Each structure stands twice: as C-alpha cells, then as structure tokens.
From TrEMBL:
Pfam families linked: WD40
Protein name: WD REPEAT PROTEIN
UniProt source species: Salix koriyanagi
Signal peptide positions on this chain: none
PROSITE patterns: WD_REPEATS_1, WD_REPEATS_2, WD_REPEATS_REGION
Keywords attached to this entry: Repeat, WD repeat
Species classification: Eukaryota, Viridiplantae, Streptophyta, Embryophyta, Tracheophyta
Length: 304
C-alpha cells in the first residue's frame, strides 16, 4: 500500500535548509552565539543550547536548556527578542508553541520544567499570562481554534485547559507514565497524546471519559506527534530508530513504519503534505531525512 522514496541530506545545526531551493544558508548559528538585542524586553544571553523549536508563518521560536526563549523572524536578520524565563534548577524550556488565539492575534506559549506555562504576545513579546501546575510541564499544544490547551508533563494524567485563562476544564486518564508529546487534528475534535508508556492515545475532545484508540510504538516513549495539514495522516516518533505514519481515514489501522538509525531530534510535514522531514541527532551522522509522498496509478493513496 505504501512506498518510500528517501533522500538523505547532511544538516548542521547552524544552517537553515530550504526544501524548495535545496540549499542551506547560515542562519540558525545565530541562536548558538551570545545574544544581545536592544529594548526594554530583551536580555543578553550567553551561548544557548537549544532544547525545543517551533515555526509558524514568519516567526521562529526556540527554547534553551537554561530557560532561554529566543524569537527570530525568518525574513529578517538578527534576533527579534531573547530572554531567560527562569533561572532555577528546573529551568529547561521543554516546549514552545506559536498559535493564533481565539480573537486572531498571534501568541507564543512556553512550557518549562518549573511547572509553569507562560504566554507572550508574538508582536510585542510582552508577557501576557502565567499558568501554574502541580508538576513539570513537558509539552503543550493549542487547539486550531485557539480556545483549548493540552497540558502534559510529569504525571500520568493529561489536562485540557482554557487557553485564555489556564483554567483546567478536563482530564485525560489512561496513560501509565509521564507524557511528552501532543498534537491536534486540524478539525479540532481529536487530540493525540504521546507517553513514556510507549503509546499514543487519541481523544475525542467532546467526550473525555476514555480514549478512542491506543497506538503502540516498538521500543521507546512517544516523543513526537504531527498531523498533516489536511488531517489525513498522523506521524508518531519514538526517541530513536522508528517513525510510524498512520492513515486517519482507516481509523488509524493502516500504518507505515519508517525504520531508520539514530536518535530522532524532531519531525515535520510540509504544508502540502507531500513531504515528511525527520531530523537525526548525532554528532557524526546528524542529518535531515526527507521522505517524499509517492503517487502512482496503483497506489494513489500511498504515502512516504
């Protein structure tokens, strides 16, 4: 049912890669150097070790292992905003998300190991809100309509909260360990959560009493989840070696397993769903794998 066409390209952390032009440019290296930006909101930062990243439209946001937050515009040189959110022992920035709120304004959401979620305005970078929880927050994601917030962390229970107020409105029970990944289906009704128990659970946001389905990994925790922009496929990444691509139209029964070698740094679908990119984290063989969706007469629905 599914065919694979793979192209391997070396990727250094200090480069920006264009899949259209098939070229690299020095860009991300700016994140690894001492940062200084004039303005009342920015603070100078020493060399940053990146822990998480997110891109939406023209804005790229990165978090660091020492609680840093760095924002850059893709069409402009230099750093637009940088600061250290927290300096405690649990300072690591675990997740960042860029989203549109329910009123259309763009927001930046930052989850840290200090059990707090912070919200910033994506235009002014002013701090808008802080939500506190009982455990370290490993991952957050906002629903497509900007109204709901998934909160996952050092707890077997996952939470649903109001994205504007942070008030918890529901809980998801079924995982057996800590959670690290989440993704919303574009229709806003299905939420996928990834857990240390090597499973991904699917939840109907209209009925949270139990999960709709449980998708199993091979060996490791589910560390990455991504839906295609049309909602047709769900990619599920383990910490190393395996990425699983599920066909949502088959009720997640049909699946392609991509077996690679190395630790998986992240993954992302192209906006047109024609490509799946997988980052490999390795000092020697660090690379970006590009899997192109294949179309032919006999496999019109085949993918990567």
């Amino acid at each position: 049912m599914m065919c694979i066409l793979c192209k391997i390209t070396q990727l250094c952390i200090g480069h920006h890669y264009s899949s259209v032009a098939k070229k690299y440019s020095m860009w991300l290296n700016q994140l690894l150097q001492p940062q200084q930006r004039t303005g009342l909101l920015s603070k100078s930062l020493s060399r940053v070790q990146i822990s998480t990243m997110a891109v939406k439209e023209n804005l790229m946001v990165a978090g660091g292992f020492q609680g840093e937050l760095i924002c850059m515009y893709l069409n402009q040189p230099g750093v637009a905003f940088c600061t250290r959110i927290t300096t405690g022992e649990n300072a690591i920035t675990n997740a960042v998300d860029v989203y549109h709120s329910h009123n259309g304004s763009m927001r930046i959401m930052v989850a840290n190991n200090d059990a707090q979620i912070r919200v910033f305005d994506a235009e002014t970078f002013a701090s808008l809100n802080t939500f506190s929880f009982d455990w370290s927050v490993n991952n957050t994601s906002v629903s497509p309509d900007g109204k709901l917030l998934a909160v996952l962390g050092d707890s077997a229970e996952c939470l649903i909260a109001d994205a504007n107020s942070g008030k918890v409105t529901g809980s998801l029970k079924g995982h057996l360990d800590y959670s690290f990944a989440s993704a919303w289906h574009p229709n806003g009704q299905i939420l996928a959560t990834g857990n240390q128990d090597t499973t991904c659970r699917l939840w109907d946001i209209r009925n949270l009493t139990q999960s709709l389905a449980v998708l199993k990994g091979n060996m490791g925790a589910v560390r990455g989840l991504k839906f295609t922009s049309d909602g047709r496929f769900l990619a599920m990444a383990e910490p190393a070696d395996f990425v699983h691509v599920f066909d949502t139209q088959s009720d997640y029964v049909k699946c392609q397993e991509i077996d690679i070698f190395g630790e998986i740094a992240g993954m992302s679908f192209s906006p047109d769903t024609e490509a799946l990119f997988i980052g490999i984290a390795d000092r020697t063989y660090g690379s970006l794998l590009e899997f192109n969706r294949r179309h032919c007469n006999f496999y019109l629905d085949s993918i990567f």
